[in-house]
Specification:
Elements lengths: L9 H7 L6 E7 L8 E6 L13 E4 L6 E5 L8 E6 L8 E5 L18 E4 L34 H15 L11 H25 L9 H10 L11 E8 L3 E4 L4 E4 L7 E3 L3 H8 L5 E4 L3 E4 L5 E2 L9 E2 L5 E5 L10 E6 L16 E10 L17 E6 L9 E2 L2 E5 L2 E5 L3 E4 L2 E6 L1 E10 L43 E2 L20 E2 L1 E5 L4 E4 L12 E6 L5 E5 L13 E8 L12 E6 L4 E5 L13 H7 L13 H9 L4 E10 L4 E9 L5 H12 L6 E7 L1 E13 L5 H14 L21 E2 L1 H8 L4 E11 L12 E2 L5 E4 L11 E8 L2
Parallel strand pairs: 11-33, 29-30, 36-37, 38-42, 38-43
Antiparallel strand pairs: 1-2, 2-5, 3-6, 4-5, 6-7, 8-24, 8-34, 9-13, 10-12, 10-33, 12-24, 14-23, 15-20, 16-19, 17-18, 17-23, 18-19, 21-22, 25-32, 26-27, 28-29, 28-32, 30-31, 35-36, 38-40, 39-41
Length: 819
């Protein structure tokens, strides 16, 4: 056949002919599709008289096939001839032809030339997603496409396009009423099209970090570049409870409420209207972090001043003596020092709320070496000595007692400040218990592929995609989800609310009705298939979705499981309340008199904004975590604990370079500090660079100032003021001296002009000039004339004026004049 014809008339004409016969169709016989080596050839008419043999049949294709046998038609099936081949064919098309004799091309007598052959495929039975019907090689002329606005993307645009099309298809239809069936259909289709269009736009929008509108999408994009977004952190507060009972236990999870007008401090548990009013508040709710035992002797503790007056705890203090034998105090107890009255008036309204500080006791001494309770041997007053860590050292001087003047004479205030125990640690977040979050849906029907002997040797497109697990993506009913740190009852009080928010974890647990507990995790990529975990994903509006594993990375929930969640709500800077704002709890009014937070709540951090993620995530991997240059070694080492400052230097040591790191320690230069520094630098150094840690070169300065004292000032007072300014510093305020070691850095040139200006600012100094200004190790170099002292890049200036270590600098004054 050399033509393609849409109408097949030849078959019908042969059936009406009395002289001609022809092939109707051919079928491949075999046990499996594509595997047969027998051909069932069906003729239009009775084929018993054809007498076909092996020489009358030719099967041609890419692979030559030989006819090994021909089974003649039977009386039961006179139209079918079965031909046996030596083997089956491949995927190429084959042609079955009838010939009159071997080597000829004409068909046998009585066979129509047009129906003497048929094209077939041995693999026609293999599954295929395409239609087996041949293409129409003579298609009708294509119609002119309709004039449609393909730029329509929203509801109004789609509705207008369909109305325009309807005016072309149905010119007489002009209905516009919403109740009309046709109008309702158009609006429904426009509504569906609008949603589909939005889905198309959303997929493209969420595919890029610069255009994503979902915070969850940004979180996943950021994860691809190892950037962990900050979900925020809740606030923490120290809550003081004044107990009326000798002892009282406060269990973990006790809620504390923000002050409400007209509400008593302690709301009776039986007063349901007020209880419900407190629990329904929109203000932050704080919950106790651990079990706490209150003791009435800790309600207010006074400082013992050993019969002295006008006393204060100086800046940096780490110990104190308290009145009474306070047996309820122990290591780990938290005390808050509080100024209760104004030191200049004795009026509680004049007390400075900034003079409050929390400490965690590291030592409590109640008895002497013989086990006898501590007392003042002068008057037998019972006392208790307490200490706390340097991390909790007082940042300001705390006035203990004072004297102020009145018209009637001096008035002493013996207790300006006090210490308060009965401190309960609490953090922001209201618990939500056993919230039903949904049931895992059933798996959708999954198509099963058909098995065959060799159809798999050809790639066949599959129309269906197998779903590995049911999609279960529940949303919590309440928000915002609390992120918090674990409470450490041994950490210093100053570290109570200072942990970085990035390390806070979500306060949520999930249980399924089969008894399995599912734990929260930051990432499922490291989870095995048998680990039961989930990730809380938070949208821009604070809504929380839970993403479970897929069976490969984390366990996938089984269909039909019912899940419940226990979590807390309350997060961010909204919990950073001011002092004395927490004022209520639900309990027994006969047991507690006062509820308050002497210090403001702190540590609350808002979740990272979407714009911040866009700005920082793409560049987070560029954060340097290696040492390449000399300055890199100094910069990285300066960030290590126990090191004040550092400077790196490359030196050729014969066969390779060695990075010598000169450090100035915060305390002593010890072998342990060297080992720790080398261990941390070893993870940052470049290959082929050795490490060596050495102490910085300290250059002692020799400074002599010549001071002219005013006639109306005492030289001793001026001397003390100058030494305080330059060397000792202000021990009350904590202000260091100008020549303190912390004020010098590597290689810094020391100039004389700031020292002279500082000296002349002291009351009673008429003039100040340089007597001596140089280095102790180079006495022949005098910097008096040039006004500065130069140091090399690895040297640090020092002028401690310590008589036990004169090599670390000498500072002296020559005073003239005055009294």
């Amino acid at each position: 056949m050399i033509y393609f014809c849409s109408q097949k008339n030849r078959r019908d004409q042969i059936l009406r002919s009395a002289l001609l016969n022809g092939i109707d169709f051919l079928e491949v016989l075999g046990n499996h599709p594509g595997c047969g080596n027998q051909l069932a050839v069906a003729f239009l008419k009775d084929a018993r008289g054809l007498n076909l043999g092996v020489d009358n049949i030719v099967v041609s294709g890419d692979t030559p096939l030989q006819v090994t046998g021909v089974a003649a038609p039977t009386d039961e099936d006179p139209l079918t001839v079965v031909v046996t081949l030596d083997t089956t064919g491949d995927f190429s098309p084959y042609t079955f032809s009838l010939i009159g004799k071997a080597g000829g091309i004409d068909p046998p007598t009585g066979i129509d030339p047009q129906l003497s052959g048929v094209t077939f495929s041995f693999k026609a039975g293999c599954p295929s997603p395409v239609d087996c019907q041949a293409d129409n090689c003579c298609p009708p002329p294509s119609a002119t496409p309709p004039d449609i606005n393909y730029l329509a993307k929203d509801y109004a645009g789609f509705l207008q396009v369909m109305r325009d099309r309807m005016s072309v298809l149905v010119p007489g239809w002009s209905e516009t009423h919403a109740a009309d069936l046709g109008v309702a259909m158009l609006e429904s289709l426009a509504y569906a099209a609008d949603h589909l269009s939005y889905q198309q736009d959303a997929v493209n929008t969420e595919a890029y970090i610069g255009t994503a509108r979902s915070r969850i999408s940004l979180r996943r994009h950021a994860r691809l570049v190892d950037y962990t977004i900050n979900e925020g952190c809740n606030a923490r507060a120290w809550v003081y409870l004044e107990t009326l009972a000798p002892t009282l236990d406060v269990p973990q999870g006790t809620p504390f409420y923000v002050r409400m007008p007209g509400m008593p401090t302690v709301v009776n548990v039986l007063d349901l209207p007020r209880v419900h009013a407190l629990q329904a508040t929109t203000q932050p709710i704080f919950v106790s972090l651990c079990d706490t035992t209150l003791n009435d002797e800790q309600n207010e503790i006074h400082f013992y001043t050993w019969s002295d007056s006008d006393c204060c705890l100086p800046t940096g203090a780490t110990q104190a003596t308290l009145v009474g034998n306070l047996s309820s105090l122990s290591v780990g107890t938290v005390l808050i020092f509080e100024e209760t009255v104004g030191p200049l008036t004795g009026n509680p309204a004049d007390a400075d709320p900034g003079h409050r500080w929390a400490v965690r006791l590291t030592g409590v001494r109640l008895t002497d070496d013989n086990g006898v309770p501590l007392v003042d041997p002068l008057n037998n007053d019972a006392i208790t000595q307490v200490t706390w860590s340097a991390d909790d050292a007082l940042p300001f001087p705390l006035c203990i007692s004072s004297t102020y003047q009145t018209d009637a004479g001096p008035v002493q205030v013996p207790d300006v400040s006090c210490a308060r125990g009965n401190i309960v640690p609490a953090d922001h977040g209201w618990p939500v218990s056993t919230e039903a979050i949904g049931t895992v849906p059933a798996l959708p029907p999954q198509p099963q592929p058909e098995a065959s002997c060799d159809c798999g040797t050809q790639t066949v497109a599959e129309a269906a995609v197998l779903l590995p697990h049911a999609r279960f993506y529940p949303e919590l009913a309440n928000s915002p989800l609390t992120f918090a740190h674990a409470y450490d009852p041994t950490a210093p009080a100053s570290a109570f609310a200072t942990a970085p928010a990035i390390t806070a974890t979500a306060q949520i647990t999930v249980q399924s009705d089969d008894g399995q507990n599912w734990s929260v995790t930051e990432d499922l990529l490291g989870f095995a298939a048998n680990n039961y975990g989930f990730i809380p994903e938070i949208e821009y509006d604070g809504s929380v979705f839970l993403r479970f594993g897929d069976g490969q990375y984390g366990a996938a929930p089984d269909p039909g499981l019912i899940f419940t969640a226990n979590y807390r709500i309350g997060n961010g800077s909204v919990g950073n309340l001011g002092h004395d704002t927490v004022a209520h709890l639900i309990g027994n009014p006969a047991q507690i008199r006062t509820v308050r937070n002497p210090l403001g709540a702190a540590g609350g951090t808002d979740p990272e904004s979407m714009e911040h993620i866009r700005q920082y995530a793409p560049f987070s991997f560029q954060t340097q975590e290696r040492c390449v240059t000399e300055d890199d070694y100094g910069t990285m080492t300066s960030q290590f604990d126990g090191i004040e400052q550092a400077r790196g230097t490359f030196r050729w040591t014969g066969s390779w370079y060695t990075a010598f790191v000169s450090i100035e320690p915060e305390a002593a230069f010890t072998r342990q500090l060297i080992r720790n520094t080398e261990r941390q630098l070893n993870m940052l150094r470049m290959l082929g660079i050795d490490l060596a840690v050495e102490q910085a070169v300290v250059v002692g300065l020799n400074i002599v100032l010549q001071i002219c004292v005013a006639p109306n000032h005492f030289r001793g007072d001026v001397f003390a003021a100058l030494m305080k300014l330059f060397i000792t510093g202000d021990t009350c305020t904590g202000q260091s001296g100008l020549l303190n070691a912390e004020n010098f850095i590597f290689g810094e040139t020391v100039y004389a002009s700031p020292l002279i200006a500082a000296a002349q600012s002291v009351d009673g100094v008429v003039s100040a000039t340089l007597g001596t200004f140089g280095r102790l190790d180079q006495p022949w170099v005098d910097g008096t004339g040039q006004g500065y002292i130069s140091l090399s890049r690895l040297e640090i200036a020092a002028c401690d004026n310590d008589p036990n270590h004169l090599d670390r600098g000498v500072f002296s004054l020559q005073l003239d004049g005055g009294k």
